[in-house]
Amino acid sequence: MAAAEPREAARTESGPDVMSFPGEKQNPKVQDEEHAITNEKAAIQKDASNIDLPTYDAREEDHFGEKEVITDAKGLITHVLHVDDNPSLSPWTFRALFLGSGLAIFAAVLQTIYYFKPQAIYVSVVFLTVIAYILGEILAYIPRLGPVGRFLNPFPFNSKEHAFIVVMASSGATTAVATEILAAQRLYYDMEPNTGAAIFLVISSQLLAYGIAGLLRSILVQPTKMLWPINLPVNSLMETLHRDRTETSRRVKVFLTIFLVMFCYEIIPEWIFPLLQGVSIFCLVHQNSLVFTNLFGGSQGNEGLGFLSVSFDWQYIAFLGSPLWVPLYTLTNSCIGYLLCIVLFMGLYYGNVWESQNFPFMSQLLYDGSSNSTNFVTYNLTQILTPEHTINSTAVEAAGVPHMTATYIAYLITTNMGITAALVHMLLWNYDDIKDGWSFLAPHNLKRVLDPSFWRFWEARESQEDYKRRVLADPDKDPHYKLMVQNGYREVQQWWYFGVLVVAFALGMGTLYGTNSTLPWWGFILANLFAAIFILFFGAQMGITGFQFNQQPILQMLAGYIHPGKPLANMYFTVFGFNGVQQGQWLLRDLKLAQLAHLSPRSTFCAQMLGTIIGAIFDYIMMQSIVDSQFEVLTSIEGSNVWSGQNVQQYNTLALAWSMASDMFSVGARYQKTKIRVFKYINLSIILMMQWYMGWLFVGVNSSILSYFAAGFFAQLYLRRYKPEWFVKWNYLTSAALDGGTQVLVFILSFAVFGGSGTAHSFPTWAGNNGGIGAGRNIDYCMFNPANA
Q1: What are the start-end ranges of the H helices in 80-141?
Q2: What is the pLDDT of residues 520-559, one digit of tens each?
Q3: Interatomic CA distance for residues 132 and 611, integer angstroms
Q4: How many other CB atoms sit within 10 Å of the CB of residue 762?
Q5: Taking the CB of residue 680, how many other CB atoms lie within 10 A of it?
Q6: To 5 degrees, how large is the angle CA 199–CA 516–CA 618?
Q7: CA 4 from centre of chain
């Protein structure tokens, strides 16, 4: 085994004690690395001297940089990352709180901007990591003169501060689904809920998920097999930035080189030469065929399937996360589903199933039956809504049942198939991983409720020594988590998360009536029960495979049958049901990130709470600004190559459609197969991912998919198997650099030239920039359908 590399220096100086959370280790003001390591060894020896406690030496788990083919989760987290820690480092500084708050605001604003883009893009945690490091190092230059100087800069910027800032910023970077319904109410219902009620709606929907996810962390975060592979580039980067420069200088240079190259390069496909977003040889050769557009086009939202197109824009290649970290199993299933999706969509459209050729090839809107292949007529929603925003069945009979595009219906079918199959797959193959999530229903645990001591939640259920004994003896626990427990980090008590859940539940119940939601109290409770169940199943799935399902369609289907004729109730049900699952998964991801960074659980709790609340507020503020300035674009079919309302459109469309489920989806209705096939295919759990990807291309920019798979298979199939030393050292660091350089530049362009600040500045028209939709063209030269304009 390669020798473990030196631990990070404590780098503290004399001066006032650093702010410390009650019950956590105080900073001992060690002077150098040698002193810190001596203290750590002494602590380990002291614990080991207790014969009742199992001994644990993290150095035996550290295999950083060893040359071998990695085959499991434990191999990854012990070869890509060092299993060592310096517990004397403290995250509790004004600097960390200040930068964490600022970046949470920044991330929330940026993520909301991305939400209204032609392709839904997530703010990369790598991007936040880079910005946090730069700002942290800048603030570390503040002179330590007097009490103020030492308060602002108590010691050099350390890895624990960095992790605290990143977790806080990442918690703010998750777009709240509640902003979707608030945007939909403005765009389609001419409603604007009270500002205070709207903000509390966003906050409560985020924190409900936080409470549920936190209660499940021992199942979904702490075990080794819950890898959460999306975190590996981030943790690899943080470790590289904070370890001794003599051992990481080459890694830092490689990261900075790739980062700067991408920063300079991305302006070309993003602004100067947008043709590079999706180069289709077929469309360049044959520019007068809508069949070619539908099959080979895909450089703009809702243009086509992008088959055999090649993208040179990393923003779109990594739109759901860098393909370099996606496990091979996930890549293989998704690639099969992608190819089947192309066959399915083309077959439905050109087979004219559901009269599909009378409507756009791809769209998320509802259409009137008077539409034809040259004139797409959107459905007039106002004619079927009562003043209370419920469905008027008599008006529906008079106006006719709305139509949906065949590709959208196919997406609903395959999503329902995939979700059902995923539940079955997790029960069959991963039951042991999730069964503890139901342990509270065991008879002996239910009896404990009758014991008065059960309700004294402020009392610890287990001593710190007993907890340490249990964790260190558990072979399934993550080595990094064992190291933290060995070093004395105190775990957050369950009642903290339960308290958050109770407060958020009360806030959510109150906002139902403050926003005229039409969702009854029992529907609110039911939505949160679905969220809790789905977080357990799909949180485990994402933690193991890196794959995330979109549960929104099936929850809107359930809401449609539970609350018929109430589209607003449907959307609010989905806010608390689907948002709970999505937000819960991101919070679990960040809990794992903090665990691999050895950030104490109590620090992580505070960072996530603060970041979530701050982010929710600024999600709402930015959504209001974008809807005000881009109202017409957001309600159009294709939008523009800069802004799109497709996410809000599909949310509203499904709410309305499922509110008329008896006329549209039930037995004998036009789209009955959308519901029936859920049960017909329930036994196809072995291809759960492939099923979802069979509807993957129903929306957005699809020209980047081929490049996505090419990059992913190169990393996970070739490098991981045949160049393991390169894979371990460079794959995740390269992924971080590509994401970081791209997103820094895209952020600048969003405000400088794309209209994020109010005014857009187009690059002059030339062969590589033909003007796009604004000029009546597709930027990849595929034939433009004027009916989509």
Answers
A1: 94-115, 125-139
A2: 999 999 999 999 989 988 888 889 888 777 788 888 889 9
A3: 14
A4: 16
A5: 11
A6: 15
A7: 33
Angstrom distance (rounded) from CA 296 to CA 711: 20
**Which is nearest to 280 in space by CA: 701, 716, 722?**
701
How distant, in Å, are the alpha carbons of 107, 205, 505, 586 from that of 210? 18, 9, 11, 9
Q: Which long-range contacts (CB under 8 A, 24 or more apart) does 48-57 make?
A: 50/465, 52/465, 52/469, 53/465, 53/468, 53/469, 53/472, 54/469, 54/472, 54/473, 55/472, 56/472, 56/482, 56/483, 56/486
Specify whether the CB–CB gap between 559 and 540 falls below 8 A: no
At residue 723, the 3 state secondary structure works out as coil
Interatomic CA distance for residues 103 and 615, integer angstroms: 9
Tokens read off for 714: 């190169």
Angle at the Cα of 306 from the Cα atoms of 302 and 307, rounded to 5 degrees: 145
Q: DSSP letters of 546-595?
A: ------HHHHHHHHHHHSTT-HHHHHHHHHHHHHHHHHHHHHHHHHHHHH
Q: Which residue has the tokens 């001419």?
A: 190
Adjacent-strand bridge partners of 279:
310
H helices of 286-436, in order, are 290-296, 314-317, 328-350, 393-399, 406-429, 431-434
Alpha carbon 436 to its chain's center: 25
Q: Helices 125-139 and 732-752: crossing angle, nearest 10°?
A: 80
98's CB contacts (< 8 A; 6+ apart) are: 139
291 against 678, higher pLDDT: 291
User: Looking up tokens 């674009």, which residue turns up?
Assistant: 633
SS3 778: coil
Give which of 589, 594, 596 is closest to 81, Cα–Cα.
596
Strand, helix or coil at 511? helix
Lowest mean pLDDT among 283-287, 348-352, 638-642: 638-642
CB 314 within 8 A of CB 305: no
CB 111 within 8 A of CB 173: yes
Tokens of 663: 């006329």
pLDDT tens across 87-128, in order? 999 999 999 999 999 999 999 988 888 788 776 667 888 889
Comparing CA positions, the residue from 68, 676, 75, 760 lying closest to residue 412 is: 676
The closest alpha carbon to 219, from 433, 498, 5, 47, belongs to 433
- Residue 291 CA to residue 406 CA, distance in Å, equals 15
Extract the tokens encoding 518.
Answer: 């039409």
Q: Is 439 exposed, middle or buried (0-12, 13-18, 19+ CB in 10 A)?
A: exposed
- Residues in Cβ contact with 157 at an 8 Å cutoff, skipping those fewer than 6 apart: 95, 133, 136, 137, 139, 140
354: region left, alpha or beta (phi > 0 left; psi from -120 to 50 alpha): left
Give the contacts of 407 (CB within 8 A, at least 6 positions apart).
Answer: 345, 348, 349, 356, 361, 362, 697, 698
Q: Tell me whether residue 468 is exposed, middle or buried, using C-beta atoms within 10 angstroms of its C-beta: 0 to 12, 13 to 18, 19 or more.
A: buried
SS3 content of the chain, % helix, strand, coil (to 5): 65, 0, 35
User: Could you give the C-alpha distances from 539 to 415, 428, 604, in angstroms and in order?
Assistant: 17, 16, 19
